[in-house]
Amino acid sequence: MRHIISTGQFDRNFLDNLFDDADLMESSLRSNAPLSSARGRIMATLFYEPSTRTRLSFESAMLRLGGKVISTENAAQFSSAAKGETLEDTIKIVGGYADVIVLRHHERGAAGRAASVSPVTVINAGDGTGEHPTQALLDLYTIKKEKGRVDGLGVALAGDLLNGRTVHSLIRLLSIYKNPMVFLVSPEKLRLPEEYKRCMTEAGMRFEEFDDIGESLPRADVIYMTRVQKERFGSLEEYEELKNLYVLDAESMRAPPENYHLS
Fold first, then answer.
1. pLDDT band at 263 (very low <50, low <70, confident <90, very high)
2. Global confidence as pTM
3. By CB count within 10 A, which of 89, 232, 242, 246 is most buried?
């Protein structure tokens, strides 16, 4: 697997092996054992959209693995893109400086475009309203650690399901497992796109749609909240109307399901 563009690339065997490796690395870090699998390698983080957690987590991971990092935090403004250079040309150039490029871009499909011309590995760190595969992998890993399994879990996905790329990637991952039940909680204007519903249907996954988050709570083992994506709205008024529809607070969790865990 040369590039990581979509969670649709993965299968169950890949995920099981990846999570086993993650467990070993976590154990090594806790014991302060040195890691050197990226020694002699350079990673370029090329971010055209704002990021704190994703960019810093990639850079921290590369440094912990013994590698080095070159970075641009706001490539849309502070790279040659501001002078009219295309994404494809930028990728070709940066690919000459690094062994792997971690790309975040505001356009859906940008990661795939980058991979098609890149001389080195491209990792999608979010492409518009498309996908965010590495975030979804981390979320799934967390679910597995906290619940002990993924098979057969009830998962409530709540918030901006239309624009929330982490949800799109997580759904593809859940479709790999046995008998998950997905509760899609969103206002009408922010419903999950049909392509992801088709993905669930084709995988034999059960899912239901709700307007009220309270209806799904008693049946969910996991509640996955995603913010309303302000940057995807053309109208601030419409964003303000929708942004606080789903809030997980003390009132909504007054009577949580048995064995519920918040993390």
1. very low
2. 0.87
3. 246
Terminal-residue alpha carbon distance, the chain: 31
Q: Which residues are catalytic?
A: 53-54, 83, 104, 132
Rg (CA), the chain: 19
Q: pLDDT tens for residues 143-169?
A: 999 999 999 999 999 888 988 899 999
User: For residues 194 and 200, what is the distance between their CA atoms, to the nearest angstrom?
Assistant: 10
Spell out a b/e string for 225-257, using b for 16 or more CB atoms within 10 Å of the CB, else e: ebebbeebbeeeeebeebbebbeeeeeeeeeee
Q: Which helix (H) or strand (E) holds 183?
A: strand 181-185
- The percent of residues in the chain predicted with pLDDT above 70, rounded, is 83
Cβ 204 vs Cβ 173: under 8 Å: no
CA 79 to chain centre: 25
Show the domains of the chain with their CATH numbers: 34-127 (3.40.50.1370), 135-242 (3.40.50.1370)
Share of the chain above pLDDT 90, in %: 68
DSSP structure string for 94-137: HTTT-SEEEEEESSTTHHHHHHHH-SSEEEEEEETTS--HHHHH
Residue 105: what residue type?
H
Q: Give the pLDDT confidence score for residue 73 in this predicted structure.
A: 74
